[in-house]
Each structure stands twice: as C-alpha cells, then as structure tokens.
C-alpha cells in the first residue's frame, strides 16, 4: 500500500483526501517513480476547483514530481531502475508516494540537480522556456511586462530574463515581493496594489510601452495587460489565477492598436521526448551554472498529508517562489 491525495468532489482545499491505495505495475511504455519531492502548481487548484474538469471522480491530483525509478514497463529503453528522474506532464496523480508515468515524459536528472530543485523548477521552468524561447523569442535589450513576477514561474522568469540580457518589468502585490523580484533579476517592478500598471509601464518606457506582456493572472489584469502593449503588441495569457478571461470583444484588440493575443500551454509546446529533452537541457544548464537559483523556503515545504494546508497557503497569495509536498512525512 502507498499514500496519495485524491478528491471525490470539486471545491476548495477541504475536498482533498489523504488515502491509501495499491499501486499498479507500470504498463508498456511507462515507468514507476517513487516520488521524493512533488511540485505544487497553481493549475492544480484549477483542477481541484472544477475549473479544469477531470474525466472522472474520485481523481488524483498533480502532474509534477521528482524521484527514483523503481519499475520499468516493457518498451522503455532510455530509463532504468534506479535512475533519478523528474516529470511535469504526467496523468493526474503526482500528489502520491508512487506514480506511474509515460517513459516519454520523464527526464533523467543531471547529478548537480537535487530532487527538490527539480520538482520546484521543472513545470515552471519549462513554462518559462516555451514563453521566452518559443511563444515570443525574448532578445537581449527587450523590455517587457511579466505579471506576478514574485510567484514560482515569475521568479524563474526574472532570472531567465536577466540571463538573456532582457529587461523584465514585473508586477507584484507588495513591497516585500518587489524586493524578491528585483533580487532575482527584474529590471523594474510595479506594485499593483498602489500603482497603475499601464501608466507605470508607459513611464518606464518613455511612452513606448512594450511589445509583449506575459500574464498568468487572467481576469483582473486583462485590461492592464492590453493597455501596456504598443501597437501590434502580443499578450501571452497563460493562466487564470484571478479567474478566466471571458466574454472578450475582439474589437478591443483593434481599438488598442491591432493587438495579438495567444493562450498557450506547455502541452502544445512539449509534445514528444525530443522537445522535452531540448527544453529540459536548456533549463537545467541554467540551474547548474547558477544563472537560475531554485530555493524553496522551509515554510513552503509541506508533508504530503498536508496538501489542504499547502493549497490554502498557495491561494492566499502568501507564497513566493515554489512550494513542495514531501512524501513520507
């Protein structure tokens, strides 16, 4: 028997249950991973709440973790028992001591990367990789806006932008978070609690505004993001932390300068093992070199059994950077 988190009804953190289950042997093409550190991501709250519906209930939760391969199914060639691996695109159920994952979705960890670093950075880092290197190719000298710069994705984005020689303007919810974003590499910060985002962007850019805005907040920042773009600029809307953007009048894109909007996701950018390998190698080379540092506060490491508390903490906006669940505690 092993332990996992599941939910039988959608709702708030209180629906999460810590239960026993019997792991099944990996199917052909799968590997079984004994998780050592589990990534907590905001998308997990969308699944739990029902915003992103599951195929059936009860359901497991989570798609990201790092651990050790304990069993290998038929047809898996590139991974063996004992390998240290990380994954971020598994079927729901990574909030678990044991999880079966497609061999095409696991990446063997470099020796220099710990389980906690990997689980804290993999989904978020792959997200930044496709945002900066594929959706819009950020170049040295580019000035752009990144909403929620002190979150898990945001702090990696600040560091990656600095490594590229680009100027990231990051929005934050407090002066304390502004300090964190600046320390991570943000060129400038905007406290959305006390400052007008679009007006401040215009001020920072001498009225030019920016060519691209990355927005994972959604509903509450939609207009601020559009208003920060220069003519023919691109809004990359990749999350819904404040709720989904709905009822959009496409005419507003014309009115504000023939703007572009895209709603991307990792699963449309990393679709096979070759793409996973290329993105992962770029991410982990930056971590190994020290250009991107991944440190998880002790207060944001939760025993697997305390997933409810972890979700409450995440949704309170009290966290900075990444949070983890640790099995066996």
DSSP summary: helix tally: 9
What's the overall geometry?
globular
Q: What is the CA-atom radius of gyration, in angstroms? A: 20 Å
Output the structural class.
alpha/beta
Q: Roughly what is the average pLDDT, rounded to an integer?
A: 95
* Strand and helix order: EEEHEEEEEHEHEHEHEHEHEHEHE
Largest sheet, in brief, is: 7 strands, mixed
How many E-type strands?
16
What share of residues is helical? 25-40%
Spatial separation of the terminal alpha carbons: 16 Å
Low-confidence stretches: none
Give the percentage of residues in beta strands: 25-35%
How would you summarize the topology of this molecule?
Layout: E1 2-7, E2 16-21, E3 30-40, H1 42-49, E4 59-60, E5 65-72, E6 84-87, E7 98-102, E8 106-108, H2 115-135, E9 143-146, H3 152-164, E10 167-172, H4 175-184, E11 188-191, H5 197-204, E12 210-215, H6 222-227, E13 229-237, H7 251-255, E14 260-262, H8 273-289, E15 301-303, H9 307-315, E16 323-326
Parallel strand pairs: 9-10, 9-12, 10-11, 12-13, 13-14, 15-16
Antiparallel strand pairs: 1-2, 1-4, 3-5, 3-7, 3-16, 5-6, 6-8
Helix pairs in contact: 2-3, 2-8, 3-4
